[in-house]
Amino acid sequence: MRKGIFVPLAVWNLGELHPNERVLLAEVLNFESQGKECFASNAHFADLLNVSEATARGYISKLCNAGFLIREGDRYNRRLRKSAQTSAQIRADECVNPRKRVRKSTQTSAQNSAHNKTDNKTLNNTLKESAQARKVVLPFQTDTFTAAWKEWKEYKRTDHRFKYKTAQSEQRALIKLQNEHNTETEAIEAIHTAIANGWKGLVFGKPKNGRANARRAQNLESDINREKLAEFARTGRLNADGGNVL
Questions:
Q1: pLDDT at 44 over 80
Q2: Where are the alpha helices (DSSP H) in the chain?
């Protein structure tokens, strides 16, 4: 049984990428570090990131366009692999003096091969170190969010006797929190709201049809449904017309 996805520090420091894109890139690199080719489908990445297949496909396209991944084959037999250069590096190379560019193109295949082997060795060592550390990647790398998430886990442990069993389960919770709340402020507010109300889980009550969600929120705040709200605070569950609970 898989216990989690480990993101190398070199990948996580790619600030121009969305956190989900970094996790997807790390998943492809994990295949290569194990000596396997990555033929994973969009459904595989969608399940890993807890997003739709269309969203996962968009992440892959962006990584390929930016030069982080190379896509080979057709839609029925697609293969993803790491690119030796990013698009930013390629653009920088194209801006150099034409003579220098010619000299650079005359590098021997032996030099390129040695460079690739060094990159792969460094990447594999980083993956091994990350696997040993078993660290969970936070969607917002700030002291404020780190403290809020630590407070949430302590609250779950002391008030509800709950602890994330694996790094993967905790990572999925963080991915869903970040998908539902795109800013750090909203994510921290959702955590504090759940703690203040004594809820067992983080409540995501914002479906795509905002009007339906507004009516649902008003119903929960009305006198008629106060009993439902009280029951939710005790049990952490809602009826079929309630919001999703993580």
A1: yes
A2: 9-12, 19-33, 42-49, 53-65, 87-94, 98-105, 109-133, 143-160, 167-180, 184-196, 210-221, 226-235
DSSP annotation string for 59-97: HHHHHHHTTSEEEES-TTS-EEEE-SS-HHHHHHHHTS-
Exposure string for 152-168, b = 16+ CB within 10 A, e = fewer: beebbeeeeeeebeebb
User: What are the structure tokens assigned to 66, written together?
Assistant: 């930016």
Collapsing DSSP to helix, strand or coil, 244 comes out as strand
Residue with tokens 């570090």: 33
Q: Find the range with the poorest average confidence among 26-35, 54-63, 84-93.
A: 84-93
pLDDT digits 0-9 by tens, 137-163: 888 889 999 999 999 999 999 998 898
pLDDT higher than 80, residue 20: yes
pTM for this structure?
0.37
Q: Contact at 8 Å (CB) between 26 and 5?
A: yes
CA dist., res. 200 & res. 159, Å (int) = 9
Q: How many CB atoms lie within 10 A of CB 220?
A: 18
DSSP 203: E
The b/e string for 11-44 (b: 16+ C-beta within 10 A; e otherwise) is bbebeebebbbbbbbbbbbbbbbeeeebebebee
Tokens of 82: 């790491």
Sort strands 244-245 and 203-204 into parallel, antiparallel or unpaired: antiparallel
Which residue in 240, 238, 8, 244 sits closest to 120, CA to CA? 8
**Chain centroid offset of residue 128 CA:** 20
